Amino acid sequence: MKFNKLCVIGLGYIGLPTASTFAIHGLDVVGVDINPSVIATLNQGQIHIHEPGVQEAFSQAVRVGKFRAANQPEAADAFIIAVPTPFKSEALGEDNGTQYKLADLHAVTSAAEALIPYLRKGNLVILESTSPPRTTADVVAPILEKSGLKAGVDFFLCYSPERVLPGQIMKELIENARVVGGVTPESAQAGKALYATFVKGQIVTTDSTTAEMVKLMENTHRDVNIAIANEFSRLAEKFGVDVWEAIALANLHPRIKILSPGPGVGGHCISVDPWFFVEAAPEIAQLIYHARLVNDAQPRFVVEKVKSILGALQGKKIAALGLAYKPDVDDLRESPASEVIHLLQAEGAQVQAWEPFKPTAQLAGIHMAASLEAALKDAELILLLVKHTQFTTLNPHTLAGQTNAKLALDTVHGWNAELWKQHGFQFFRLGDSKSDSQTNA
Ligand code: SAJ
User: Fold this and answer.
1) Which of 167, 191, 349, 356 fits as disulfide partner to 313, beta carbons 3.0 to 4.6 Å?
2) Above pLDDT 90, what percent of the chain?
3) Atom of ligand 1 nearest to the CA of 295
4) Which residues have a Cβ under 8 Å from the Cβ of 304 and sit 6 or more positions away?
5) Mean per-residue pLDDT for 1-22?
6) Residues 392 and 425 in one domain
7) CB contact set of 204 (below 8 Å; sequence gap of 6+)
8) What is the pLDDT of residues 174-216, one digit of tens each?
């Protein structure tokens, strides 16, 4: 099967790298986005996302004349839908006491609607957006069939999840194994042929609903495993144990790999995707549901620990280090650090936040310090929320000269307790009541 022209709908963190990679591998690519400022930026030769290697790939695609940005689809041999599937912020579902977040499929359904006039016999359509089980067969197929063409008969239809790690997208897009699920086996083969353009990893075919479940299972597995690490951190504090030591010892077992506790789970994937299972089958997905509750409650656990150190928070000055959703990235979306800061402020604390990867970020209700020094200067407590490398290498000896703070709380195991204590700090760590200093709060 030969594909000459590809139309990629949605030019975000997945769509733009995917479109650029297809273009530099020889396809004529039209990238479509509903956001006019995205199209304008791309038409000026710039990209609007921060991801290593994407600007270079995009520039090359434009240089060789294989990429164009447009605000609506065009006829093509193949179409990829790579739009976001967030959850609805304003509404919750309820089933027998289980309250769950609802997937917002609006972008997927709009993208499918937009393709109807351009769909031709023999075309291939692939959904890449993370979606609830059966979305391809039960939601996307009926929309596309309004064209008068039948999915799996007149055109090929697939689901193929992206599985790339932010920060390594360009590499993983090519090297990772790819799952391609078709509404028919022929659809899956067509999808496989398209990705074979550049994918070096294994390309495995299956049905579309299995492929949807694979993606949700991967991220749910990770969320549940982080939840148990977070629950262990609470148990360790109750029993006078250092959870970090206990995890390191447990992980000496050849078949155990406990993940790390922290202030919560953020980003646009791990904290979102498990809800798709809960919404689709609340009566079954009970473990998944409770893991979500544990992770969502972890910022509150951090705040309770801060209170056990500082006492009542009214007027207390705190320097919060890190706002990104995970270490060494500049992505602040769905960040548990922001949630911790909001909760601290709700109790009256005065928080100065410092995020070295986005020092001028504007986040509602959060005061960004102009520098690390400015954040630290008048603080009573230094609160480490993200394990950025540049935080783990901070020297408490130098910091002691820059701050009034005598208290430090590390929520990510980024600092050496003994070193901080040697330099005059009372030191505390999430999940570690063993090395916690005594307080008089
Ligand atoms: N976290 C912990 N403890 C850990 C590991 C992570 O608290 O031991 C936290 C992080 O700090 C962060 C959150 O979990 O707040 C998620 O981080 P992550 O590194 O687990 O995941 P993402 O969201 O950056 O990327 C994931 C990847 N999926 C898996 O690792 C299973 C990636 O391969 C997916 O493509 C991506 O989600 C996605 O788009 O679904």
Assistant:
1) 349
2) 92
3) 7
4) none
5) 96
6) yes
7) 177, 178, 179, 180
8) 999 999 999 999 999 999 999 999 999 999 999 999 999 999 9
Domain shared by 142 and 289, yes or no: no
Q: Give me 267's structure tokens.
A: 């980003």
Mean pLDDT of the chain: 96
Residue 440 pLDDT class (50, 70, 90 cuts): very low
Contact 164, 176 (CB under 8 A): yes
Based on the fold, state whether residues 284 and 332 are members of the same structural domain.
yes
The CATH number given to whatever domain includes residue 382 is 3.40.50.720
Q: For residue 218, tell me if it sits in a domain.
A: no
298 and 423 housed in the same domain: yes
Provide the terminal-to-terminal Cα distance of the chain, rounded to the nearest Å: 71
Q: Is 269 a catalytic residue?
A: yes
- The CA-atom distances, in angstroms, between 226 and each of 107, 232, 257, 281, 282 are 29, 10, 11, 22, 21
| Catalytic position from the list 66, 101, 215, 387 | 215
Atom of ligand 1 nearest to the CA of 221: 31
222 in any annotated domain: no
Tokens of 37: 């400022």
Task: Give ligand 1 pocket residues (Cβ under 6 A).
Answer: 163-166, 218-219, 222, 226, 259-260, 262, 265-267, 269-270, 325-326, 336
**What is the longest distance spanned by two Cα atoms in the chain?**
75
In-domain check, residue 217: no
Residue 4: CB atoms within 10 A of its CB come to: 10
Range of the domain at 432: 229-440
Cα 265 to ligand 1 centroid, rounded to whole Å:
8
Q: Please indicate whether residue 421 is annotated as part of the active site.
A: no
Strands, DSSP E only, in 310-399?
Answer: 317-321, 350-354, 381-384
Domain count, the chain: 2
Q: Atom 7, ligand 1: which residue's CA is nearest?
A: 262
271 shares its domain with 330: yes
Q: What is the pLDDT of residues 395-422, one digit of tens each?
A: 999 999 999 999 999 999 999 999 999 9
Token code pair at residue 199 = 């994918």
CB 158 within 8 A of CB 81: no
Mutate to test the pocket of ligand 1, among 219, 223, 295 (most ligand atoms within 8 A of CB): 219
Which of 209, 237, 256 is at the close of a domain?
Answer: 209
Query: Is the pLDDT assigned to residue 274 strictly greater than 60?
Result: yes
Shared-domain flag, residues 131 and 274: no
* Nearest ligand 1 atom, CA 327: 11
Same domain membership, residue 171 and residue 274: no
Ligand 1 atom with the shortest distance to the CA of 226:
3
